[in-house]
Specification:
Layout (H helix, E strand, L loop, with lengths): L3 H17 L9 H10 L3 H9 L1 H11 L3 H19 L6 H7 L7 H13 L3 E7 L2 E6 L13 H10 L3 E5 L5 E5 L1 H10 L6
Antiparallel strand pairs: 1-2, 1-4, 3-4
């Protein structure tokens, strides 16, 4: 029996396995994928796909692309998943063993944690001669330690959609906290985010 999240993860993984065995410039159709699933003992998942029109259409759209493009997209998804898993108890070691060197920095997670704890909607980045300040919407301070890598951490948080970058009327950067960011904090703290 599959939950929605486990079905998604399984389908993504199996799509990767299916497309990796194909020529880079080839395409496939859903029927070939369903047949491949059944041949590889994934009949329950094949049935689930066949019963869900939206899933079938989504897989069809993916398989109509060249397999090299699908593999690239799945690789990017795997990297993002490993980066997030690197901050989750029990999954961190698995992520680190399969994708060495991947880890969301302590500073990046701390910024998210402070936003969650302080219920801050967003923060502004204010640079001055004294350094950079992160000024949250609720007026409480967001602390960070490593000014050298602050921009890198913020860029990573935006890329992972844990923060959303916008600008205020003065053109200053505004980093908005996202639901995904809040869920990651919960998971990293060992709380269920589902």
């Amino acid at each position: 029996m599959f939950t929605e999240a486990s079905a998604f993860a399984t389908i993504v993984g199996l799509l990767g396995a299916f497309t990796s065995g194909r020529q880079a410039e080839s395409t496939a159709d859903v029927a070939e994928f369903i047949k491949w699933l059944i041949e590889h003992n994934h009949g329950e998942l094949a049935k689930l796909i066949e019963q869900n029109y939206n899933t079938t259409i989504s897989i069809k759209a993916l398989l109509n692309q060249h397999s090299s493009r699908v593999e690239t997209q799945l690789g990017e998804l795997a990297t993002t998943t490993a980066l997030i898993a690197s901050r989750m108890p029990d999954l961190d070691k698995l992520a680190g063993s399969l994708v060495p060197g991947i880890k969301l920095s302590d500073q990046a997670l701390n910024i998210l944690r402070q936003m969650a704890e302080n219920k801050a909607e967003y923060f502004l980045v204010h640079g001055s001669m004294a350094g950079t300040s992160l000024i949250p919407s609720n007026g409480k301070s967001i602390e960070y330690e490593d000014d050298q890598f602050l921009q890198d951490d913020l860029a990573t948080l935006v890329e992972l959609q844990l923060l959303r970058l916008g600008y205020n009327s003065s053109g200053k950067e505004m980093y908005h906290f996202t639901r995904t960011g809040a869920k990651l904090v919960q998971l990293a703290d060992g709380k269920s985010a589902l």
